[in-house]
Specification:
By secondary structure, the chain is an alpha+beta fold. About 20% of the residues lie in helices and about 30% in strands.
């Protein structure tokens, strides 16, 4: 078989669970196959209020706030991941892909220990039980995209099984919300990671080739016509 040693090995995308206090990785989930497509959506947090919804000049937004932002855009990601135990590079396992599926499902589930502790506190008469805190979740798509996220959707379609009815092939529709400084307290490790993610976007934007007014059929005088 012909080998090409100079061809770099593809980087895998994945999920890293991080201890928010110490910053140490608790678990690393490497996706078996990189998704073929990514669907990303960014919704700006405008300060203009209800006037941003359109519908003419009768909106209730403050005109002085039309160009202002209240915070970072709300960013969501969606993709489909594939898991296949029959892949030639995977070692057959007696449980099929149950372990891989369970690992992903536990990203949106508290542990039995956490649930038992909540029950114990409830029985002791604790009036207010603090919601269970999960590890900080990072989604990675190469070195230029490392961001804190919260899973908002995990839909699993199992499409093949072994003789023991263990799933051996599945596709997962994954939805995530990028956590920003608007979602996390100041000084939180996730907030700092988001700022690093945003700074990477700023660096990439600065490296983009700038356009020209001439390409748009405009001149500087056309842009300046609105000045008083």
């Amino acid at each position: 078989m012909t080998r090409y040693p100079d061809i770099p090995k593809p980087i895998r995308s994945g999920i890293v669970l991080v201890d928010p206090e110490r910053g140490t990785p608790q678990r690393i989930i490497v996706l078996q196959f990189n998704p073929d497509t990514l669907e990303r959506s960014l919704a700006p947090q405008s300060a203009g209020g209800s006037g941003d919804s359109g519908g003419g000049g009768s909106g209730g937004g403050d005109r002085n706030e039309a160009l202002r932002l209240k915070g970072p855009a709300q960013e969501t990601w969606k993709f489909t991941a594939e898991i296949d135990a029959t892949d030639q590079f995977e070692v057959a396992a007696p449980d099929g892909i149950h372990p891989q599926l369970a690992t992903l499902e536990m990203l949106v589930q508290p542990t039995t220990a956490q649930l038992r502790e909540a029950t114990r506190l409830s029985r002791k008469g604790t009036i207010e039980i603090t919601p269970i805190e999960m590890p900080l979740t990072l989604f990675t798509w190469g070195s230029k995209r490392v961001m804190p996220v919260r899973l908002t959707e995990l839909s699993i379609t199992e499409s093949a099984f072994d003789v023991h009815l263990n799933p051996i092939r599945a596709s997962l529709a994954v939805g995530m919300k990028v956590l920003t400084v608007s979602d996390l307290p100041a000084g939180h490790r996730g907030a700092e990671l988001y700022l690093a993610h945003l700074a990477q976007k700023e660096r990439l934007a600065r490296s983009a080739r700038a356009g020209s007014l001439g390409a748009l059929g405009l001149t500087g005088a056309d842009i300046g016509m609105g000045r008083a």
